[in-house]
Prior knowledge:
Blueprint: E1 2-6, E2 9-13, H1 19-31, H2 44-52, E3 59-65, E4 68-77, E5 87-94, H3 103-117, E6 122-127, H4 132-140, E7 144-155, E8 158-168
Parallel strand pairs: 5-6
Antiparallel strand pairs: 1-2, 2-3, 3-4, 4-5, 6-8, 7-8
Amino acid sequence: MIAYQKSESSIRAIDAADLPRITAIFNEAIEAGECTNDVRPRTVEQMTAWLTGDLPDYETYVYESSGDVQAWAAITRYHEREAYRPTVELVVFVTRAARHAGIGGQLMNMLLERAKQLGFHSAVLILFPEPLYVIESAKKLGFGELGRLHNVYPAEGSWRDIVLFQRRL
């Protein structure tokens, strides 16, 4: 299934062959200190369990250009408690080389539309307060800042804040 196609680029649902590349993109973000989802790199097996363990309730997509996966995005479980099931966390990871080309925005818009179609009530983003363009992008997409958790994320001898955003679908 292709969710979006433009010239030689497309957004499509993942398949098993994408998981090593998805893992590499995720680990690139962790190593650069840009990922709020984890503090150490994950294996392909760990990524497979995270991204496919809750199917069919949640979905993962890749952005592919000229046969190369440059980004991935997912509608994931926000919290394990049943009461929070109507709320999802959206995640988008773009390779460093492909950033600032609008790929993240395309993926996020597609995820928002798809989450609404799937009947979810609201979406959250958990972000670092920097880089500022990520926060500005969330606000442009209609997410409102709910608050900041201070010093909750361990980062090489110090602690970082995270910012929680929400949008009704």
